[in-house]
From TrEMBL:
The keyword Nucleotide-binding does not apply. Ni(2+) binds at residue 2. This is Hydrogenase maturation factor HypA. Pfam families: HypA. Zn(2+) binds at residues 70, 73, 86, 89. Belongs to the HypA/HybF family.
Length: 121
């Protein structure tokens, strides 16, 4: 489950930005090439956030598509499927570009400081 490594890094970044404030939500933009499963990402984020200022935050995942360029028919389209084939002619000789981003888009803070005394990390 490669989502855990990504989420550990995101939680560290969010904690640095939070500077002790309680985090209620985060929005993450991730490219389709990462092949992230939404439920697995949410579980990995919750696990990585346990005992931190981020532990009760809701994470919103926005999957960004890749561009699919077909060598056979020359068409270009977008896809979130990392195993994409050309949607026009069905050829699997496609060139994928983009879809590699992992961006923390926004963080929402709640009132007061975070209470992480229950689960020291």
């Amino acid at each position: 489950m490669h989502e855990i490594g990504m989420c550990e890094g995101l939680v560290e970044l969010i904690q640095r930005q939070a500077m002790g404030r309680r985090v209620t939500a985060a929005r993450v933009r991730i490219g389709a090439r990462h092949a992230v499963v939404d439920d697995a990402f949410g579980q990995a984020f919750a696990l990585a956030a346990t005992g931190t200022a981020v532990q009760d935050a809701v994470v919103e995942l926005v999957v960004m598509p890749m561009t699919v360029g077909c060598g056979a028919c020359g068409s270009r389209s977008e896809s979130v499927d990392p195993l994409a084939a050309c949607p026009v002619c069905g050829d699997d000789g496609v060139h994928l570009t983009g879809g590699e981003e992992l961006i923390l888009e926004s963080v929402t803070y709640g009132e007061g400081a975070a209470d992480v005394s229950r689960h020291p990390r």
